[in-house]
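Model: Ready when you are.
Researcher: Fold this.
Model:
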Amino acid sequence: MNVKKTILMLFLCVTANLYAQGNAEDSLAVLLNNYHTMQAQFTEKTLTSKGGAVTSTHGDIAFQRPDLFRWYTVLPSRQLIINSGQKLAIYDVDLAQVTYKNLDEQNDATPALLLSGNVDKLKEQYNITACANTTADCYQLSAKNDNDVFRRLTIRFSNNTLKSMVIDNNLDQTTEIQFSNVKINTTLKPSLFKLNLPAGVDVVQ
């Protein structure tokens, strides 16, 4: 193969990859932007690099774009994470302690919190491609920054309904989240996103 043909082939490969990435970004943006509200139950398992289970939890999730988010873990311990649009509250019910964080610290709280945020920010933070060897609506997000908490996320949909997320973090752990009883674009009560603390709860700012 001569030099001109080699350059042409490389150009076509790069162009095809960029086109595929652009299509994946646009498709994921369309899917997520159609989620004005969502409620679901979840089961979450965290695995080590050798596949052993570290933790297993379940609970429920709700979000309303652009800023409202609720993640409630009921087992093995009760923890409520609420984004009210101003600050992130992490309430450990059994420990009677609540921690408040600024929104720029939100990524270390829960990966599903990414779903309720700005889709354009996902494009800034991750390279988005379609999953290989699948006919399902599946997207892989690879962190552009090596220091990002989540190195890679895989988001899977079925009939436009969110089914699962798989997250690889920078500690060589993999978290698998399965969603069930998903309800999209229903009216959510404002009280879902308000934190009403009982007396005696320790507050950490």
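Researcher: Now this one.
Model:
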Amino acid sequence: MAKGRAASKSGPEILQMPSQKMAVVHTHGDPNVVGPQVFPALYGAVYTLKFALKKKGVEFKVGPPRARWPNAHQSPKEQWTGIWGLAIPEDTPALTQKVPGVEVKVEEWRYGTVAQVLHVGPYSEEMPTVERLHRFIAENGYEIAGVHEEEYLTTPKAKVQKTVIRYPIRKKE
């Protein structure tokens, strides 16, 4: 079983991921509508933390954003619940709020055994990749044990979008 975070270009994989402390914003609605409100708040809080830590001699790299979509495949896009996050240092107790009306919380995202795959292309064309990952999970004797998560390796405006699609999994009984 592989360890790490980067998704393989060759296909789905199963790996172990540690829990991570995250800066998080919860939303309800179409990601294309709520996303533009989320990112200034999320990045504002995390970069404020980054620069405060840098003054203390502590460095940390802001990684790619992630989002969890608990009801994405059961609801119309306008009703999606989104949990958007950026990894932060484990000892972060709180974050400075930078955008009024958009609360950025500190949460622990638990992982453990996960299955993931790299999707190359528009978000609107992810479904065949998601279905391929679901088949891979089942064929390897696992079942999905948590919510659909995406890690955005490129921006929505990138010429070629790259997204890691991930699920926590457990062995079937």
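Researcher: Key takeaway?
Model: The longest strand covers residues 162-171.
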